[in-house]
Amino acid sequence: MRYFDGLLPELKQIQYIIDTHQEFIHLEKIATVNINQSELPIYAISLGNQSSEAPVITFVGGVHGLERIGTQVVISFLETLLGRIKWDKGLKHLLSQVRVNFIPLLNPVGMALHKRSNFNSVDLMRNSPTESHEKTAFLVGGHRISPIIPWYRGPEDSDMETESKALVNFIKTNCFQSPFSLVLDCHSGFGLRDRLWFPYAKSKLEPIPHIGEIYHLRDLLFQTYPHQNYVFEPQSKHYLCHGDLWDHLYDLSLEHTGTFLPLTLEMGSWRWVKKNPLQVLKSLGLFHPMKPHRVKRVLRSHLILMDFLMSATASYQNWLEDGKTLNMAQRATRKWYDN
Ligand SMILES: [Zn+2]
């Protein structure tokens, strides 16, 4: 591990947070992954109500090793909560009603090696058994041609990768028993705007059964923060892919009575590039704001969203039912699926 300290400041930071806040957190090592005879841990850190009846929100980062900013955004919200937990009565009360999970770095090997994929060159977000039956994006949509080409799904008929399995198992055991569960998985590298994506990634034609609830959640966000700047839409608006882990988990969740809504935050990195074109030349360039002031701005700017989602999870009983109405589903379908 020592050897990787310099390559993985994020993991060092996570370990420091764990060591210094043991009294407030529940810690689980959900897997270890090997690289050059070293073992790197994948941690899940949990705050708040640990009962399976409590609603739960899970923040995920570092699925793609090049997208360091996702991990940093998740760590920064964890730090904010841990900073407040000692003195903030309001937060303490909120955490008695909700569980807040963090998996800040799912793919530590990818991050150490400056790779999108894991050690086996598998793109974890193309690694689930979910198949799209529509026309997926060429290569980007996931393929089994060769691990040399990015977006590789892994060999045919193989088991999921360690990292993917760890995430799937954690969500299944920690979230599926809850009456309501949200996820925010933080990525970067797509477009100019910050986007919130929801499943499916496998289909343009088929809306998820919870489309009304998603639409209502979007409404709540936009009413609560009229000056926010997110585009909120199905991932399939942009490209279709095989093997998306959230498609897979969402479909599995339908066998349970609780509601499970996974969201992906895609931070629009092209504007960082626009302001600093030379950063394209660096390996992280397309996925990470290089200037320190820009990193700070990104870390700050998503805290409100994360705080909103945490509150929406804790108070799900006050809005979720309204999302189940036919009217809400119709508005959602009109907005996103009627061309
Ligand atoms: Zn990504």
UniProtKB/TrEMBL annotation:
Residues 1-339 form the Peptidase M14 domain. Belongs to the peptidase M14 family. GO terms for cellular component: extracellular space. It comes from Catenovulum maritimum. Its cofactor is Zn(2+). It comes from the Bacteria. GO terms for biological process: proteolysis. InterPro entries: CARBOXYPEPT_ZN_1, Peptidase_M14. This is Zinc carboxypeptidase. Keywords: Carboxypeptidase, Hydrolase, Metal-binding, Metalloprotease, Protease, Zinc. GO terms for molecular function: metallocarboxypeptidase activity; zinc ion binding.
